[in-house]
Amino acid sequence: MRRSPIALVLAAAVLAAPVIAQPGPGGAGHMEMLHGFGTPAAVKAGTYAVEPAHTQVTFSVSHMGISPFAGTFSGASGTMALDPANLAATKLSVTIPIASVQTTSSKLSEELVSADWLDAARFPTASFTATKVTPLGPEAASIEGTLTLHGVSKPVTIMARFFGAAQNPMSKKDSIGFLARAQIKRSDFGVAKYVPLVSDETVLVINAAFEKQ
């Protein structure tokens, strides 16, 4: 298999989607996931910074029990100190601006930053800080940490997998990427408008890109 423990990691780092999935031979219950270049063994120890242009956090909720509905946050910043030989010592901290939220409805995007929802004026950022990284195989990991959203801090576990490692041909920097997923109850963070018509359960999917400093 490609990928070694390093995959574990930090991916999750941040608090998007794409587990780009396609039906496979197994039918509807079978998913095939995209993979990038390189292997976990290619990842170099050091300090990495979030690459904001290619890092996304997507949230998805059930809209009135009829269909899923999603929006995306962007503009993340943060750092990850990673040593493939000592993953337990990994340090990861990521911040995302709430005002970056976008949906397919401009009216809803405006509402989401208002005091009725995420209240970006009072709570301009959301953040995640990892406290524990546990390998779950050659290219996956469980990342425990603290999510701060809407002024409330709660423990959250993010499931992550290694996506790719290569030198970015544009920036010429060693880069790594991860896919990650977490599920929260938004009411736990004081964002309870329209529950249960708009589901309390909220899925976060993260596309995380990092560049070596």
Automatic annotation (TrEMBL):
SUPFAM superfamilies: YceI-like (SSF101874). Residues 1-21 form the signal peptide. The keyword NADP does not apply. InterPro entries: Lipid/polyisoprenoid-bd_YceI, TTHA0802/YceI-like_sf. It holds the Pfam family YceI. Residues 47-211 form the Lipid/polyisoprenoid-binding YceI-like domain. Transmembrane segments: none annotated. Keywords: Signal. PANTHER family: PROTEIN YCEI. This is YceI family protein. It comes from Novosphingobium clariflavum.
